[in-house]
Write a structure and sequence with these properties.
Oligomer: single chain
Structural class: mainly alpha
Strand content: under 5%
Number of strands: 0
Amino acid sequence: MNLCQAIDTNKQLFEMIQMVGNKLLGETKDRPQINKSFLAIYFINLIVLENKRFLEVYNNAGKENILISLYNSEIILEEVEKNFHENDFCQIVRLLSNFLINMSANTMNSKSSPS
């Protein structure tokens, strides 16, 4: 069972993800970029835990690089926040899975390109 199916079919899991996400985002009036990054990292961790293939992608890109890239990717973070409020967790999973794949590809390309 993939992560989206698990979330869609397990009300308890859905509610737990929603509760943790709300705590990570904090209050609407003072929601800094880092809170949105934490929410995205939370979902990335769920993705990596569910699909070991993404663990290699995660390790190739490096957790520090991922956090820095997320923090600097305002459009992605806005999409994560918007989809979170719309309870569209599967869209967040797709968005961040693609983000991880692109990060890994960029990392691999930079390692293989001559200096």
